[in-house]
Amino acid sequence: MFQYLMSLRRILSPRVTSLALLAALSLTGSWGQAEAKTADGKYLIYYSMSYLGNTWQTEAMNAIIALSKMPGFADKVELRVQASGADAQRQIQQITSMISAGADGIIAYPISPTALNGVIKRACDRGIVVAVINGVTEPCAYTLKADGVKLGKIRTQFIIDALGGKGNIIEFLGVPGVSYNEDHHRGLVDALADHPEMKVTAQLVGMWSAQETRLKMREFLATHSWEDVNGIVAQLGCDTLTEMQVEDGWYPKNPIIPCSGEAENGARIQMLPKESGIEGALGARGLSVGSGLSGVPYALKIVKDVLDGKKHPRTITYDPVQVITANVKLCQTGSAQEFGQGCNTLPPALVPNDYVIDFWTPETAEIGIQQALTGNP
To answer: Where is the secretion signal located (predicted)?
Structure first.
């Protein structure tokens, strides 16, 4: 049974409701094949969220909750969710409470790659299975991650190729201090090292938020124009930045500025040919490749497996699908089965433009759009 800390609230869109954040209770941990210790004999597993306020985190929370209610999990796992916000000390305090409450497993999205090391080591020493998304430097934790450096390179190289190795680009960063953000930036720097005619006109902190991306771009445009930008590398926000070009009249007088970034549904819709008749289709040049939202529900599978006595490598790196104009494919319903058949983009009526849709992978083949939207199986 989930114990709610707060009532349902809407995040970013009237169509996207985040499920309630959850309280923590219960007993102690063991190693190897764990002994379930909740009142009804289930493993007690916590998901420690960090940064709040964007669709990625909301979807990830919904996906892991939905998985916990599915066959094979519902009768073995009690999942409880807590959120610390962008506050590493608060996350440490919450994880400390999880240890004291007797967690069997803890899944964390760490706000810092190093700050949680001490509390994670204490959890491991108590026999608690710990899995983290995007990594910490404490080796006892299982790490599930997209390779941020590699992803930064891939996204930047797309823009380099689109511009013929010459031009001015804007880099949109995520949340400062988070390991993925820093890794992605390093990948961009590495990709640009051999291209002296590519210049970073501005680094803007978008905080992985469509609203913040819009705000920062408006601030930039107060002293610049779209003419000053030839390409964009955005950890999140390509769909928003393209919308702004339409709003400002830059398009259709000029081509959409190439943008590479997250697996946002709106950006993929914008890649569809304008003649397709799909609302928002512009034939835009872009690259849409996710940072691994599917890692959060997958981590629940890993933790449960380890508690069951199964083995997994300590580091699991996934390689997300790269979507460009040539392979963008519209789904009809967005069911898990349909994604399994090869579609990668949702009709605009189903989700907001900034909805990230790399929740489905072969490892998380149970998760479709309804699970990511509602948290229900």
So the answer is: 1-36
What class, spelled out in words, does domain 9-146+292-319 have in CATH?
alpha beta
Residue 278 CA to residue 21 CA, distance in Å, equals 36
The helix/strand/coil state of 154 is helix
Domain ranges (residues) in the chain = 9-146+292-319
What pTM was estimated for this model as a whole?
0.84
Rounded to the nearest 5°, which phi and psi values hold at 123? -65, -45
Phi, psi of 96 (to 5 degrees): -60, -40
Q: Strand pairing partners for 286?
A: 259
Residue 361 CA: distances (Å) to CA of 338, 340, 344: 12, 8, 11
Helices 55-68 and 295-307: angle between axes, nearest 10 degrees: 30
Going from the C-alpha of 46 to that of each of 13, 70, 202, 221, the distances in angstroms are 27, 17, 39, 43
Give the integer Cα–Cα distance in Å for 143 and 153. Answer: 21
Phi/psi at 157 (5° precision): -60, -35
